[in-house]
Amino acid sequence: MELSKFSNSSLSIIKLFSLLIIFLALSSCYEENKTVVIIPSNLLSEQQMIDILTEIQIAEAGFSINKNIKSSNELKPEYYNKVLEQHSITLKQFKENTNYYHNYPKVMENIYEQVLANLSQVQNSVIKEKEAFDEKVKADSIAMIEDSIKLILQDSTQIILAD
Q: What span, in angstroms and rounded, lies between the C-alpha atoms of 158 and 50?
């Protein structure tokens, strides 16, 4: 009986030792995939990224409204290059910066939130300008109608007086 306890005990130790070796072997194979973040040589500030992305989104909206798809597709690269030139960067630098900021999701989320806020401000500004324009057109139309009525009344008065 004593012999069977010893063999069960040594079997348990062997099983435990085997599990430990398997665990160590598996954990030694694990390699953490850390992303190497390459900092662009011309790192744009968050505000610069916001400004560029806002202008690009406004252009995209304009292109999507344009019914002439061929013309839009031909103008896109030219317009994007103009935007990048205004910010004194190249397309390669912009892509490097975009890739850099995508490694920081919270920062990129804040950038896009600010872009959306800017687009909302632009939209509100355009709506106000349109409303002001519509009011001016309406006022001009009313003024033209009033002038026409005055002319008709003058003409009719002159006709009556002439008889």
A: 66
